[in-house]
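Request: Not sure, any thoughts?
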Amino acid sequence: MDGQPEGRGIPNRLGRNPATEDVTDCAAVLRAMRTPYLVLTPDLVIADANAAFLTTTGRTLAELVGRPVFEAFPGTTGGVDSDGGVGKVRASFERARDTGRPDTVPVHEFDVPDGAGGFTKRFWSLISIPVRDAEGRCRYVLQRAEDITGWVCAEAAGGDPDSQEAWRRRALDVQGDLHARGVELEDARAAEARTAHRLAALARVSLQVSQAETVQELIRVVTEGGLTALGAHGGAVAVPEGDRHLRLVMSEGLRAAAGGGDGVLPWDAPYPGCLAARTGERVLLPDRAATEAFSPVMSEVIASTGAESWAALPLQTVGRRLGSLSVAWTGPRTFAADEMDLLVAFAAQCAQALERIRTRETERVAHAAVQGMAEAFQRSLLTEPPESDSLEIAVRYVPAASLAQVGGDWYDAFPLEDGRTALVIGDVTGHDRYAAAAMAQVRNVLRGIAHSRRDSPAAVLAALDRAMRDLEVGTLATAILATVEPGRGAPPDAACVLRWSNAGHPPPLLIGADGTVTVLERTPDLLLGLDPDEVRADHEVRLPPGVTVLFYTDGLIERRDATLDQGIAWLSGVVARWARSPLGELCDRLLAELSGAVEDDVALLALRAHRDGRPRPAAAGSQQIPPGDGTTR
């Protein structure tokens, strides 16, 4: 403005909406006005002034902005009012601010600099109009100052009637123009409020769109919330179903067109949404005529729904079409740039959410397929234990997480050629399908070595360690390999002999028939996979009839807030309480003691000796808990 900074005191744009660019440029409006204008805050501090005001008063923006108006313009002493008109003008400002209605000071004297160090007498007609915000509060007071010095001088000199009439018309024009400007500002404020309300509604819907987990949930959010936020009568979302069809899900206001429900349409059906989905192009039908001209079936749609204008936008991401979004209104639309920007932005967000959901669903299907194979593979490795009248064996397995269902823990029991029974409990690092694959290698190699040579458990584990090195089985594992030899001594109370070797695994528990628990703690040897030349040791203990031995993996005793020794002490206390229970029930009650989510795989192998020749108990058996079905911590 005449070399002065523009829009310094007030926002340069009123009603700005970044999404729609629906703006009123206040600085441009002020520049276009040739009548002096002054902009005040509600507390009557100068916020801005246009070029005409600065030229007329001989001031600059730097001198005015930020100063109280009556400090910047203290009034004159020789005017028509004793206080220089300050009280009258202040009252006018305050009435406009407080009532929300324009207020006029018909005549006000205020002298202006004459450029030569003096002042020139001037008379003004002042009109103040409030500018309110979206809540109806006064945001600014806009004052128009019309120079009526000529009219006042003519009146004082008794001027002719024609001149007076001209000034009267001029005053009326001023008031009419100011009213028009006030209406424009009110319209801008109303538009700002409508836009803010719409954007707030869309923000809420956008959050729901981003959180949708299924296609059905996404479509519900769009058709129930998004279309309302857009001010539409209704709409529909079309997504591909098969190769040549689209599933159409409509809002309540449009379902009459489909006989009261949603449906499946051919890819090339004569509807705007089908065309947008098929071609990737927008379809804009601004009024009834355009809609009826699109295809004959649209006349029926108008008759059944009342929707006369349509916009159909493709839902697509880079290189992929995902369907379409159709929006309908009951009246004509201009499809202005700001409205189209809003529609396109909303469609893009819907497309991104749809892509995310579809990708996740595809991943879930693929994961389920892989997981199913992994579970079947692991279950094939966790075989049923052998049956014997003198030995009862029970096994249990619980995976680390419901989504994993596979892990590196395993148990095994199988007969050897020399009449012994081999028992194995082991744990390969990790609890996912990679750990399960490594476990399968270790388990199968161990089986082959143990079955082909009549060595002690220590010798078999040493051979396994060397085989893991030679076969490049790149993993670490803990394990206990035990053998049970037939009973020694006079029947029927002959005791079996348990011989075992421990490769870094938690010690087994020996549970007497009277509930006494003994931890078979021996100095453990190194883990498998560390040093193939490790010298390993055997240990043995006699198993009288009724004695139980419990092998387990560390997932059973590990706690975040306890040491392994504390975990073993806890386990000893639990099994002591249920020592006289049938073997399978003992395992189940032990797992039932766990609470919450299992943080690591849990495998159990329990052995109980019985009198030789006595029938095997009816409750004996493995009753293996398949992955995902066991009790979880």
